[in-house]
Amino acid sequence: MIRVRVAVVGAGFAGVAMARRLAAADESFVVLERRPGIGGTWHDNRYPGVACDVPAHLYGYSDIAHPGFSRVFAPGSEILEYLQDAAAPVADRIMLSTRLESADWDGSGWRLTTSRGPVEAEVLVMAAGRLTEPRLPEVPGTFDGPVVHTARWDDDLDLDGARVAVVGTGASGVQIVPELARRAESVVVLQRSAPFILPKGDRAYAEAEIALFERQPDRLAGLRADLMRETEEVFAQRAGDGRAEARARALDHLAAQVPDPVLRAALTPDHEFGCKRVLFSDDFYSTLRMPHVRHVSGALTAYEPGAVIAADRSRHEVDVVVAATGFHTTRQPYAELITGRDGISLDQYWSQGMRAYASTAVHGFPNLFVLDGPNATLAHNSAVLMIEAQADYVASALPWTAHGPLEVSAEAEQRYIDELQERSTVWTSGCHNWYVDERSGRQVLLWPGKAQEFRDRFGCFDPAPFGVVESTGA
């Protein structure tokens, strides 16, 4: 039996941020991680071409600079290495290959069952992330070759000279297609809907630049501040008055790289700019013009032995299928494992969509905090900025739990949800996207404002919306 003050589930960016704050406060804690290694989504995603679409020197902890990033937009392997280094001081508190099986509120704390035995904790912090469970195509038929999701990449998969089908043109799709085209005999890209794509402007840092960052930390801090300011200004291009200008830039990028009017028409989005995730790539469009790459406007509709069938009924003989089809986003699997004050699971409470006050605390679940969960990510800036604010919020709430378990009021939670929905119209009308819960029509993933606003409002715990739950004992 392990007894701690705080149990954290997940060792990606959110879990490591929380662990570092708990260690600094000299709290008793443990981090449970189901994977065999640290890194969360960056541990899972190892597909060719994986990289961040936020500048590397902004996509990191504010107090841990890394002057050695090789590119403006870091490859996934470098982000994973960064996280591993950041976690090193708390690595002895992280239990790898440890899966949460259940978490039950017993009246005074949380009783956890895990794949390595029971854990008792006063406070439970879920840092399991949003993009954890891959969504695979559910179509009739059987394919007799490898079918691999980008988030479950097989490092032994031989793609040299293979005929490859890529299903999906979301963020992972536009990254992997150019890499596969360099190795495969042929690539067919099945597109359900065309995304807006802006030029990425990626480049390698020169050795002299990296050396300058190493010698002059203030220069690197200044770059981060500039990136923060510039990226915050992008918010208007996703959900404000700047959308028309950004849309024009995306269409200009398409026109410049795809002169063929037929292909260009097939790659032109039919939804409002910003309603779906806006992507970044310098080479996706040009790759589609290569003679051995074929673009198909239509989703995958069926498998056959050695072939895929698209919505236009075209048949394509392939050896490998790569599913760049995203994740189950609006219904998190960990919610089924957590049972709150009234014997109701978190999944049941979220039956009409995920919800949490300050995107962090859930009514009916005392001393539970959720990081990187409901309405806690961004469409324009680094999610790490949000994660840091949430970790600070939880750390500053912990002293209050000494007076008894904390629970946010239903009224405060509902007011917050109402505010978010009033500010989310750009994502709840005009297209189908993975931010909106289909059961309720609510937008449940994005914070509908700038990162700094969230940090100012929720970077420190305010007890006013909370009550102290009377402890009933074990």
Description:
By secondary structure, the protein is an alpha/beta fold. It is 30% helix and 18% strand. The strands form 5 sheets. Strands 1, 2, 3, 4, 5, 6, 17 and 18 form an 8-stranded mixed beta sheet that branches. The chain has a 5-stranded parallel beta sheet with strand order 7-16-8-9-12, covered by helices on one side. Strands 13-14-15 form a 3-stranded antiparallel beta sheet, with no helix packed on it. The longest helix is centred in the middle third of the chain and has 17 residues, at 217-233. It is globular and about 70 Å long. The two termini are 15 Å apart.
In angstroms, what separates the terminal alpha carbons? 15 Å
Rg from alpha-carbon coordinates:
23 Å
The low-pLDDT segments are: none
Identify the quaternary structure here: single chain
The total of beta strands comes to 20
Biggest β-sheet, characterized? 8 strands, mixed
Strand content is 15-25%
Give the overall pLDDT as a whole number.
96
Give the helix level as a range of percent. 25-40%
Structural class: alpha/beta
Overall geometry: globular
The total of helices stands at 15
